[in-house]
Amino acid sequence: MSHYSDEEKHKLLDEIKLKNRILVEGIAFAPEVFRHLDIGGKYIEQVNVLFTHDRHAHSNIEFPACFLTPLGKYRVQIRWNIDSPLKLKYEDGIYNIYDRKKLVIENIEFTKRPEYYGRKTSDGTAMRTVAADYGYGGMFVSYSNECSLKDKGMDCLFCNINATKEIYSQSQDIKWKTPQQVGETIAVGYKQGFDHVTISGGFIPERREVEYYIDVAEAIQEATGLEDFNGTACVGAPEDLSVFEKYKEAGFRTMATNLEIWNEKIFDVICPGKAQLCGGRKNWLNALDYEVQVFGRYNVRSTVVSGIEPKESLLEGIEYLISHGIVVCASQWYVNVGSPLEGHRTPTEEWHWDVFERTAAMYRKYGISWEKIRNANANADTVPYDLFRLYENIDVNPRYYRAAD
Ligand code: SF4
Question: In terms of pLDDT, which residue wins out, 4 or 283?
């Protein structure tokens, strides 16, 4: 806990606003600009394990994954957009960002690479492809890099998981992960300061993920020696809600089920597979309520895609879910390469800022703690969470989960 002065708060708020603008607009740069940067050595690289966040494909050239805002408090994901008004340039040995002609970040601090990214599992798999560093001590495992909804023509219209596979699975050697690979990787990461893991992935045929998740939990427990390994299992709404008890028994501390869209009619169109194959939206809401019964209030998370449905509908959904004991992760819909909605635009930064300020206010109104937010989320570095921490005077290191000095 820290107490920011008014002046510090003002500066940090400006940094979060800039971050919001960058995440809405993306950043333009020449793809070879990073040849002077030790990507994959000192600095962490993008590993496209689930979705790629860029607007364009770049399968044969590595980009850094993210950087910190100038005061070092907020992580900003790099989203490549050659049409962005924000330009990243290499000048006199440093990297700078300009907003049109104005210098807004001088000498960017790229995020450092965790040591485990350079290691391999006992079967020779690169650990960086097994679990990604999502900041704040969180490791993210995407067991698959594909979603079976695509084959049925029912994939979510904002999602590019299968395009990501086509672009990056060969060049970055990304495959399905075995429980043993996951256990070994998490054990190494936890020794290096990480302390939370999310297991996620696309839909798999027959929806038999529960068996896999139980095997993964056992493998992590065995490799780390931790019965409670602070794990989040992210799954779609099942037909039989009693499976949530199995996830709990297996040792997961938190659950996540991502509704994505609040308005029922828009949900049906944007997420046809989630709507038609999982008992409809009603079953998604029932599943979330059931998860809260089994795991407890705010030990459950749901992600919503901000910017597809009308603002008031989205905010109604966010408040409904939070009031039901669910941590809601809201982040900018960023139209990325290969999704069915490629070519569309997300709303303005002002639109998103209004949603995020009101969302952060709701976290505070319902008394959710940062600890709960962090433990229920794969990436606790979205703008509403940054705003929440600022208003709550919570100062944490964005790379590992340690209180800032
Ligand atoms: S369920 Fe939807 S959001 Fe999830 S991986 Fe499949 S298509 Fe993407």
Answer: 283
Report yes or no: 363 and 323 within 8 Å, Cβ to Cβ.
Answer: no
* Ligand 1 pocket mutation, candidates 50, 147, 336, criterion most atoms within 8 A of CB: 147
Sequence-separated (6 or more) residues with CB below 8 Å from residue 152? 273, 277
* 236, two tokens: 């779609």
* Nearest alpha-carbon partner for 75 in 393, 305, 383: 383
Instruction: Give the list of residues 6+ apart from residue 367 with CB closer than 8 angstroms, or none.
Output: none
Q: Quick check: 288 and 239 in contact, CB under 8 A?
A: no
CA 331 – CA 10 distance, rounded (Å): 22
Give the residue among 97, 76, 74, 77 at the shortest CA–CA distance from 28.
97
User: Counting atoms of ligand 1 from 1, which one is nearest the CA of 159?
Assistant: 8
Bridge partner residues of 330 (DSSP): 304
State if residue 305 touches ligand 1 by the CB under 6 angstroms criterion: no
SS (H, E, C) 259-278: CECCCHHHHHHHCHHHHHHC
Return d(Cα 2, Cα 303) in angstroms, integer. 28
Q: Does the beta carbon of 149 sit less than 6 angstroms from any atom of ligand 1?
A: yes
pLDDT category at 403 given cuts 50, 70, 90 is: low
**Ligand 1 centroid – CA 55 distance (Å):** 18
- Residue pair 246/207 in contact by the 8 Å Cβ criterion: no
Dist. CA 263 → ligand 1 center (Å):
18
Query: How far apart are the CA of 202 and the centre of ligand 1, in A?
Result: 5
Q: Please, is 83 exposed, middle or buried when counting C-beta atoms within 10 Å of its C-beta (0-12, 13-18, 19+)?
A: exposed
Angstrom distance (rounded) from CA 390 to CA 69: 14
pTM reported for the whole predicted model: 0.95
CB 126 within 8 A of CB 120: yes
User: Tens digits of per-residue pLDDT, 132-180?
Assistant: 999 999 999 999 888 999 889 999 999 998 888 888 888 888 888 999 9
d(CA 370, CA 31): 37
Distance between Cα 153 and ligand 1 center (Å)? 12
